[in-house]
Design a protein that fits this description.
- The chain has 706 residues and is mainly alpha-helical.
- Helix content is 58%, strand content 5%.
- The protein contains 28 helices and seven strands.
- The protein has a five-stranded mixed sheet. The chain has a two-stranded antiparallel sheet with strand order 1-2.
- Helix 2 packs antiparallel against helix 4.
- Bound molecules: zinc ion.
Length: 706
């Protein structure tokens, strides 16, 4: 009796705990979008704990299955496992990036090592690996027979899943002996803590800095919209009547472009280039050394000479040498161009009687003058035609034409912040495809940059087809009291870019979660995003969306002509600062010994060897290079943007050849690449679309590097 009652009450408690927690039931919202109004921070930990427990039990059942291993009972079962953990993780990590308070940051510290250990428990589970390996080997043998008979046991997509999972195990250390596996766990656990520490140091240091202007005379040169935004930032920080500039890009970039005050430009840019490099508690130099040391150990455990060899082995590029080959070719073309640009800037300084040599904090300012002088183009003259709402409509108009999609605003979908909008993406006939959340303005709870992520990935088929919930996050120019959000050309391209990633997730049509949407090789993932940038400034599209926010007048032909003419403007600088960061990232990870590494000295030496001119610094210096050190997604992988740029500019040629809004070409792109996720080898997908290998020439031409 007693036992029963104890049991009952225990169950009851669990039930209550679960009943209150929105992760433990269906959300019951439209399209099952996470119910942000009900999710509280205290719900995360119990859901993580339960999610890990359930996933571990599922893994256990797969590993200990008495039946002989098959694709179905091992690979498919693995792909379907962990749904609760996925559900809570997707919400939590999206909130951690875009909407984090101190409590979420604290939960992340607690949960990161738990997840690292859980992943290791899977990756290093010998029984599980044995089963995956058995299916893999069976298949390899079978393929030899089948090849001769010209038929296949598994579909291409199934083979892709099998290869990806098998490789994942091997790269996770499944083939190592017990002692080395223990080392692997230790390394992964430490890295799981170092990555958020690196990122948090960058955020803390960025947020700690402000350039406060008290005297209006020091606003000289700044457009009114930039002044207004700085006044609003000051008010938000309790400094009414002053003007505050921060290390958010929409704040410091216009300041560098327009401020006549050279000393102040120097001050804010010096702060930018020294983020997390101030020898205080938020300094990242030691963190970098520790990360590099652990990554190298990991690579060596797995039989690679360096971490770059390990990281790139799994990419399209295959080896660091192939990457360096491409980067060096581009570097050699971009360096002389950047030097010519520096001379042009110096000529303006000299002409104005400025008795100094152009420095990195001058570049943006004189480049802006040069743009005016050479092309009579003033970026602030363009902004009124690029209100955020119009640019969004331009992107939606584009996909209506090339894919036949309808994108409609939905006000009945839960959102997590008042800045967030929900849109439904539909087929031409109105069939539901997925939900796109957009969250475009900077705030303290959001990290810098722009990205796409998913709250739910597409997967399954037929009645089990799961539709995606995708998010685009940005840090674009905010509206002020007087003006809506008016974007720079750079921001316009970023919006199109992230929307392209969004479509990769939204239009995905594959069976398996593991290879759905953007789950592709990481030097392929920027193709669907970057190809969208090609359309952003096409005159025919500009005519439809670039309308003055006050009058609704379409952008004048004369301005379009100026945008077109200035297409190569500053491309030496843009290409070089990017390549410098990419090469720095590869060089750090090509080290085969990091004992006694001096991070700053290494950075300097690497840049000197390349012959980087002093007027330009890498797009990210080491101590705030989040791509390289804030996680593993882009480590030894900042190069992927230019790798994919070769692909996207070449792929875009198909539209240039057939008409930039040609629906048949759009459908071919969608069916061969965008909807296919990681269901086949990237180069196969690419050639299926283009009918040939990609050529580097369109990229060189586009950037004026020929
Ligand atoms: Zn991207």
């Amino acid at each position: 009796m007693l036992a029963a009652s104890v049991l009952f009450s225990a169950c009851d408690t669990t039930k209550n705990k679960m009943g209150d927690n929105p992760f433990f039931a269906e959300y019951g919202t439209a399209f099952e979008v996470p119910d942000f109004s009900k999710i509280k921070n205290e719900h995360y930990m119990p859901a993580f704990e339960e999610g890990i427990k359930q996933h571990a039990a599922e893994i256990d059942a797969i590993a200990n299955n008495e039946e002989a291993p098959t694709f179905e009972n091992t690979l498919v079962a693995l792909d379907k496992s962990g749904s609760l953990l996925d559900k809570v993780s997707s919400v939590f990590f999206n909130q951690f990036s875009a909407n984090a308070d101190d409590s979420i940051k604290a939960i992340n510290k607690q949960v990161a090592p738990m997840l690292a250990a859980h992943n290791d428990n899977i990756n290093l589970n010998p029984k599980l690996f044995e089963r995956v390996k058995a299916v893999y080997n069976q298949q390899k043998e079978l393929n030899l027979i089948i090849e001769a008979e010209n038929q296949s046991a598994l579909s291409t997509e199934q083979m892709s899943l099998l290869n990806k999972v098998y490789t994942g195990f091997v790269r996770g250390g499944a083939n190592l002996n017990d002692e080395d596996q223990a080392k692997m766990r230790d390394i992964n656990g430490k890295l799981a803590l170092l990555y958020p520490q690196f990122g948090e140091n960058v955020i803390k240091e960025s947020q700690a800095y402000k350039l406060v202007i008290e005297n209006a005379e020091n606003l000289s040169g700044l457009p009114q919209s930039v002044i207004d935004a700085a006044a609003e930032t000051a008010t938000a920080k309790g400094m009414e009547g002053k003007w505050v500039f921060t290390l958010d890009k929409p704040s410091w970039i216009p300041f560098l472009q327009y401020s006549d005050k050279r000393e102040l430009r120097k001050e804010i840019y010096t702060a930018w280039m020294n983020i997390a490099n101030n020898n205080n508690e938020f300094d990242n130099k030691e963190v970098i050394k520790e990360i590099l040391k652990l990554r190298l150990e990991k690579a060596k455990l797995l039989g690679y000479n360096t971490y770059a060899d390990f990281a790139i082995d799994n990419n399209m590029a295959k080896t660091p040498e192939n990457v360096l080959n491409l980067l060096t070719k581009l570097w050699d073309a971009a360096l002389p161009m950047a030097k010519r640009e520096a001379k042009e800037l110096q000529a303006i300084i000299d002409k104005e009687g400025g008795n100094f040599k152009v420095e990195s904090w001058d570049w943006w300012y004189y480049a802006e003058k040069l743009r005016k002088e050479k092309y009579a183009l003033d970026e602030s003259e363009l902004r009124p035609y690029f209100s955020l709402a119009n640019v969004q409509q331009g992107a939606y108009e584009l996909v209506k034409r090339i894919y036949g999609l309808n994108i409609v605003r939905r006000d009945d979908i839960p959102v997590y912040h008042e800045d967030v909008e929900a849109w439904e993406v539909q087929e031409e006939n109105g069939d539901h495809i997925g939900i796109l959340l957009v969250d475009y303005f900077p705030r303290e709870s959001k990290r810098g940059g722009a990205w796409m992520s998913s709250y739910r990935k597409q997967q399954g088929a037929g009645k089990d087809f799961v539709t995606p919930v995708i998010v685009n996050v940005g840090n674009f120019t905010k509206p002020t009291a007087n003006e809506p959000s008016l974007l720079s050309l750079d921001e316009v391209e970023t919006l199109f870019h992230e929307f392209g990633h969004g479509l990769h997730g939204l239009l995905s049509k594959v069976e398996y979660n593991t290879i759905s949407g953007t789950s592709v090789k990481r030097d392929f993932v920027e193709l669907p995003s970057q190809i969208m940038e090609n359309w952003a400034l096409e005159p025919a599209l500009l005519k439809t969306y670039a309308r003055h926010y006050k009058t609704g007048e379409p952008i004048p032909d004369e301005l379009i002509a100026k945008i077109q003419k200035s297409g190569h403007f500053n491309q030496g600088f843009v290409t070089l600062e990017y390549l410098a960061a990419s090469l720095l990232d590869i060089k750090f990870h090509k080290l085969d010994n990091v004992d006694g590494l001096d991070v700053l000295a290494f950075e300097k030496q690497a840049m000197d060897e390349l012959g980087l001119i002093k007027e330009i610094i890498p797009r990210y210096r080491s101590t705030y290079f989040n791509h390289s050190f804030g996680g593993e997604g882009y480590s030894a992988g900042y190069y992927v943007y230019i790798w994919a740029a070769v692909l996207d500019t070449d792929a875009y040629q198909a539209f240039v050849e057939n008409g930039i809004f040609d629906r048949a070409t759009g459908d071919a792109l969608r069916n061969n690449i965008i909807s296919r996720g990681g269901s086949d080898e990237p180069m196969t997908l690419y050639k299926n679309f283009r009918g040939a290998d990609p050529s580097i020439d369109p990229l060189l031409t586009k950037r004026g590097l020929k």
